Amino acid sequence: MQRSDQKESEQSVDDLLSGFSREGGDATPTSSPDSSGGGRLSGLFSPRTFLAALLLSIGGLLVGGAIPLVGFVGRFAGIAAAGFLIGLVGSKRHYTEVVLAGAIAAGLAFVLSTLFAVFAPFAVQLLADYGVAIAGVGAASGGLAALVGHYFGRDLRNGLTQEL
C-alpha cells in the first residue's frame, strides 16, 4: 500500500516537472512529438522543467550570493542546491535542463556582476574585450555546479527509495 502511494507521488512530481497533464488517470503529453518537431529527441528536453530549473537556479544564486563572506562561493552552492532539489524530487533524469539552467544563470550573473562591480566606463571596456570569456567561465562553472547538485540529488533519492 505504501509503495503505490509513493509511486503516485513520484508520478505527479514528474508530471509537474516534465509538462504532462493528468486526464482520466493517464498521463498525456500536452503537445505531440510530431507537432513540435522533436521526433526522437523530444524526451531529451522539457521546457517546463527547464523553466523551473532556471527559476530555482536564479533563486539559489541570489540567496547564496546574499550570504556575507561566502557570497561568491555561495552563488554556486545555491545553483548546486537547485539542481540537488530537482534531482531529489523528480524520478526522471533532467540533466540537460538543469545544466543549461545553471549555466545560463551563472553566465548572466558573472556578466552583470562585472558590469556593476567596476566603474562603468572600465566595465564596458572590460566586457567588450573579455565579455565572452567572462560569460563562458561563469556558464561552465554554473553548469558544473548544477550537474554535481543534480547527480547527488538523484543519488540520495535512489538511496532513499531503494528497498533494503
Would you kindly provide a brief summary of this structure?
By secondary structure, this protein is mostly helical.
Write out key terms for the chains shown.
single chain; 164 residues; mainly alpha; 6 helices; elongated
Description:
This protein is mainly α and 164 residues long. The chain has 6 helices and 2 strands, in the order αββααααα. The chain has helices spanning 2-18, 33-36, 47-65, 71-89, 95-117, 120-161; strands at 20-23, 26-29. The protein has a two-stranded antiparallel sheet. Helix 3 runs antiparallel to helix 4 (71-89) and helix 4 (71-89) runs antiparallel to helix 5 (95-117). The longest helix is centred in the last third of the chain and has 42 residues, at 120-161. It is elongated. The two termini are 17 Å apart. The model is unreliable at 20-36 (pLDDT under 50).
